[in-house]
Structure prediction request, 891 residues.
Amino acid sequence: MKNIIEHEISQITKSILDDYGTGRNIDKMDLFNQPSKEEIIAIVEDLLKIVYPGYYRDRSYKIYNIKSNSTVTIEDVAYHLNKQILLALKYTAKEENDVEKLTEQAEKDTVTFLKKIPDVRAMLETDLEAAFQGDPAAKYRDEIILSYPGMFAITVNRLAHELFLLEVPLIPRIMTEYAHSITGIDIHPGATIGKYFFIDHGTGVVVGETTVIGDRVKIYQGVTLGALSTRGGQKLRDVRRHPTIEDDVTIYSGASILGGETVVGKNSVIGSNVFITSSIPADTKVSMKDQDLRWGQ
Amino acid sequence: MKNIIEHEISQITKSILDDYGTGRNIDKMDLFNQPSKEEIIAIVEDLLKIVYPGYYRDRSYKIYNIKSNSTVTIEDVAYHLNKQILLALKYTAKEENDVEKLTEQAEKDTVTFLKKIPDVRAMLETDLEAAFQGDPAAKYRDEIILSYPGMFAITVNRLAHELFLLEVPLIPRIMTEYAHSITGIDIHPGATIGKYFFIDHGTGVVVGETTVIGDRVKIYQGVTLGALSTRGGQKLRDVRRHPTIEDDVTIYSGASILGGETVVGKNSVIGSNVFITSSIPADTKVSMKDQDLRWGQ
Amino acid sequence: MKNIIEHEISQITKSILDDYGTGRNIDKMDLFNQPSKEEIIAIVEDLLKIVYPGYYRDRSYKIYNIKSNSTVTIEDVAYHLNKQILLALKYTAKEENDVEKLTEQAEKDTVTFLKKIPDVRAMLETDLEAAFQGDPAAKYRDEIILSYPGMFAITVNRLAHELFLLEVPLIPRIMTEYAHSITGIDIHPGATIGKYFFIDHGTGVVVGETTVIGDRVKIYQGVTLGALSTRGGQKLRDVRRHPTIEDDVTIYSGASILGGETVVGKNSVIGSNVFITSSIPADTKVSMKDQDLRWGQ
Prediction:
């Protein structure tokens, strides 16, 4: 570039650097005291190897020894997760930053979380079975673990949910948004989800923070389990805003079920594109009547 | 971490390792005899370079020689695809594992697939033209190849479909789910798709395994070509469950067309959000009547 | 592989290489004179570091010095963006390729774009505030910058829009399609978007090229701001095809608002799944009447 351009770039750089100093939220500079998105994604990838020991292997190990390999991975996760939790706790601590107390809390959270892994794995075994039994296009269970976005999303979600229950800040949401960006399935880590959960296709699914889902529930692409209105914004925080879906419910593609007082009773079937804002009794099938269509040539 | 934590981690590691030995589906350890998702994705990336020689180049080649470069890429794909097909065949072989026969089958499949590439490229040239002619926002054909998700999805799908027709297990679905995770477009490798196919925007599109699509069909974001109900689960496998879309049909965003006996006749136009579960004659326009809306202030 | 296979591969390679020479659009070989998708994505990642200096840091810098680090990043972006713009201008120049004039144009565009960064950052600060105030599930502003797909999409879009206004070819769309592949949110770089814009969840959102959006607008997943029909194809290029959304409008999930003459007046609220093809006055709430549902057991 010509000298004149270099001079311009230098001026622009100065004006951008000046612009950083105006105390705005987008300019927070506390970066080395902040949890790292990249580190958290690396932890998720390691957790997948721990959860599915045969499927997500570290390809740099030529001779595979499940025991020593898993041991290394678990120790790695413990070390890095502990570090990220501590950063998250310090970063969000509102009052006096009692480092010793936060350090203890981070270690406690790390250990409690890791102890939950066998329980999470027991749940995921049921999800895998639900996907296999529920999808006629599934020819092998391996196909589901290796390629189904719904299986990926529920795996990350069940892990993130355990951290959410421990009130670890920031990290659970970064985990589920990573899964969202891979799968198009947006499940808030706060959602409570029962056994044998199956999401087919999945793109566009939204499951809100205070949703409660029973056992053996099946949902399709584009289903929203959402809030009726969020115009209240921050005032609605910690209020129950999302529906309850009881056991053995199926919800077909594009259906929206909204509101914190809405309960879909067990065994019910909600048809495609149905829009529900009040409760549905158990054992009910709800579908759209033939739409009022305009025909022409 | 303190010693006490290290002791806890060691206990947790032991309990997770113990948990692996309970014979569950999520614990299958046959990993070196299993096709590799990472390898299959690398093969897809190489196939893209072969299909679009000018667009997906290997940036490590400073001096580009299309002939020698493509030769190396094709040989690479042949070698790695053959290996992955053999792994997939061995892995899913139910009875006696006749290695020699499977080896022969893998080589035959690899060669048959590679011979199809010129035909696939001829189809993709028609898809590119359909995208350019069909989208007023498309200013250059290059833009479509370099950035349109619909073009990416149909490219991967046409390649995967050839492997599906050869009954190669696991690999075709891993390929299309890779495209799904990049584009939000979920086309099963089993779907049969004619020439000049154009998917605009694309997020949320689902095209089921037994769908048949004619020539010059155009679909938009959120369109589902799906099954009426999959409550039958594995019993429905190999049954025709998805619709037939004849030549020159346009399907606008969010429309759902469901069922194995549903045929949308040629030249028909299906409007946004229309929900169809029975056949539509040729030359028909179907759209929602003005919705029954509630107005307030 | 056996010799016979090697011979077959060699034959296949020959037939694919022959197939490249038939002058089709998928075969354009002008690759070193073409903007590079990978380079443009790298530029986007660098722009994110410049826009959010505390959030997207280069992790290879151990000792972080915001001033020297940002200076290097801005100079890098200037150099690489200038190069890509020049490639794009040369590549799409229809008539005599006046290199000197294009070089000057590329430098001018690069400088004009970089000068806009403080303005873009001022807009993004308002978007961040809109997301925080609008989402009861948002506990920290950091969470939004680090993980909300809507924030990512609008960031990339506001940057790409500036290049679109400068009529830089190819690059703006490659930038927004990168964001689309990460977030499922498809905003054309041509769309004009006011302050305090918030997209919640976001998967499946489509905002067309000629859309105009006012200040403090909030939209949810699956909203389409689209064209009524694009059957006219390339003939419709440069015609106003997409709607106008005035200030303070909220549009809930799955709603479609279509057509270049459609205006949604200020303060209006459009309910989930509503389908609108004509204008809506200011201060109006439009929602679906209770759907005509079929109930069964």
